[in-house]
Description:
Number of helices: 0
Number of strands: 8
CATH superfamily: Nucleic acid-binding proteins
Oligomer: single chain
CATH class: Mainly Beta
Number of domains: 1
Order of helices and strands: EEEEEEEE
Radius of gyration: 13 Å
Low-confidence stretches: 1-21
CATH architecture: Beta Barrel
Shape: globular
Strand content: over 45%
Amino acid sequence: MKKFSGAALLSTRNIAEWNHGNMAEELRLSIEKLVYGGDGLAHADGNTVFVPYVLPGEEVRAAAKAKKKKLIWAQLVEVTSA
């Protein structure tokens, strides 16, 4: 894993090491913008959530897959409105 300023660079594709069992908590999110790597960014309950395969402005349902501190990586379940 590459190092940058003393912290490991994270990828939504390499988060299996933080998967704490079955975290299938479902979230309802409004995607705010896209971030580096193409994931959508949203906020829920004080956490920052990354969801792949979404566009800004979409309302989605997503299942939490991994969490580290205040960051959540989620899997898209359904786009409820575009």
